[in-house]
Amino acid sequence: MLIIGFSAIACQQSTNNQKVIQAMPYPVSQTDSVIDNYFGHPIADPYRWLEADTAQKVKEWVVQQNNCTQDFLNQIPFKSNIKDRLAKIWNYERLGTPFKEGNDLYFFKNDGLQNQSVLYKQTGLNGKAQLFLDPNKLSADGTTSLSGITFSKDHQFMAVSIAKSGSDWNEIIVIETKNGNRLKDQIQWVKFSNAVWRGNGFYYSRYDEPKAGKAFSGQNEFMKIYYHEMGKSQSEDVLIYEDKLHPLRYFNAAVTEDERYLLINCSEGTSGSEIWFQDLNKNENKFNLLFKGFTHNYSVIDNVDNQLLVLTDYNAPTYQLVQVDPLNPSPSNWKTIIAASENLLEQVSTCGGKLFATFLKDASSRLFQYSYSGVLEHEIPLPEIGTTSGISGKKTDQEAFYSFSSFTNPGEIYHYNVENGTSTLFKKTTINLNTSDFETKQVFYPSKDGVKIPLFIISKKGLKLDGNNPTLLYGYGGFNINLTPGFSISRMAFLEQGGIYAVANLRGGGEYGEAWHQAGMLAKKQTVFDDFIAAAKYLIANKYTSSEKLAIHGGSNGGLLVGACMTQEPTLFKVAIPAVGVLDMLRYHKFTIGWGWAVEYGSSENESQFNYLIKYSPLHNVKKGVNYPATLIMTADHDDRVVPAHSFKFAGTLQANQATNGNPVLIRIDSKAGHGAGKPTTKLIDDATDMWSFILWNLGAGYKKIE
What we know:
CATH class of one domain: Alpha Beta
Mean pLDDT: 95
Helix content: 10-25%
Strand order of the largest sheet: 34-35-37-36-38-39-40-41
Structural class: alpha+beta
Distance between the termini: 45 Å
Number of helices: 10
CATH superfamily of one domain: Alpha/Beta hydrolase fold, catalytic domain
Low-confidence stretches: 1-17
CATH topology of one domain: Rossmann fold
Shape: globular
């Protein structure tokens, strides 16, 4: 394959001396004459061939691009220092929130540098913890992970969902809890579904086995729900639910704790739901409509005899909890249990005959205990501005656990006594650096249209506002997802170098409810980019940083955010890190489950939606000769959520159009990795090493070695 040269030469102050990186020429990305016609608009797609992820020429292109990227990164003089530092501070014990099954407690623990956290089991609070399941033994390189575990009602069996190389495809196996023995039950081609137990088996959702070579890119259609009876083969499983008229819908089963009601949750995408139900006490063969889709969101939390408790945004953009009679489910018959308020009712769970409600106030958690009738009993105090996991358990449990973390708090686990409403610190996480040296503050800045947007700013205490601080601005802004304060050991390696980490709570997320979400979706998606650009301008105007010291980062929908903002405002940022991003807005819906995002983005098959998608689609808004920020595109070969073709095509386009003598444009393609979930510690450290090295070098920040 021919190569063409690029003259992106970085020259910044390193740890010890001035250094020039002699960058390799970019691998050539051949172009084809593919042109699609969208409602009379011819749109070229010269890198369409890169969508064929299993083709030999694409594999060769991947190898050459990775060689080019690693050659650049390996010349950064402090890269090894960063990796050593990350490995040192990453090596701390991490405990997951314990949960109770019968008389036993289960919890995940990582000793420090284990690739995957290990599942432990102990009897009671004071029992001795015994290793129960070690996913590190499922693959030599740690790329096989546990994506979910569920228990039978009698606690005798555990269904374990297993993911390989970060793929969304799961396999379900069954283990006996008394001895850890694996049974012969094995379920394949499961996606976005755990086992849902009832009686002597469980429900699960799956797709048909994909065509050869299309497992990680082919469109997924006709999801079905099956019931698996213990001891039988998957071929004998009973089909419970399918919809032959709507191939592009999700279907998931749920069963109330008393196993009375079977619920089928349907959706056409990532928001809006429809729910059907069966009263299993009546041995019904048909499903009855509970809530018609897909304008609002509904989630059944529990049942009280023949009444259902439902969390919904119907007539309540910040959500409410209502009691519904399934035989008379009209909203006029609902009884309000927890009313909507100015704060987002993020989740409601149950334990010990109580309701536990987590609210968000300005993107920070507050936790309350209610009776089942909706009487507020008390607030459960949290240590500071941060995020809690909430409290959940069985109706018979009188104890539970919840966790808390923040940007500067690596985590605390509390034991909660339901009967007397008291919390006791169970485990406090300690790390190999002094978190008290850092602080978090929250500001509210005006976006382009004047709406105030929350912004968390994390830095060392005593920060000097001189416009010279290396800064990373992070955002997401989509799919009703909330960005709340959480701890990242990788981020600490940047903060201790004097960096600022800023997190913007953009519209499109759900921090303030469904109205906040809808303000940044479909035809209003540009609002999200405006919010992010305004955050950057706020940081610059208030002397936190400058354009030459500002990097932006986001993943998935956040990768779209970064791609759109760097093409719209290329001189506002010095560095851009679009990770596993949705970058081709005209074809995203043609791969795996991308069709499910059309409710959020719209589709190029609709003319009015095409007209706004083409205006911000990152791939289609790269212009010749513009000096775009120093860009490190990050993706992975097993990403079957946002297929790597997005990143491949964006890299080819950027490299071909970047200004002569412009900033470097590189792509990092991880192997045996996916969209991010389940990635082993070794790969996480490698990812962070490359990303922070690239950012600090291109921001001219250098690196101060820390012993």
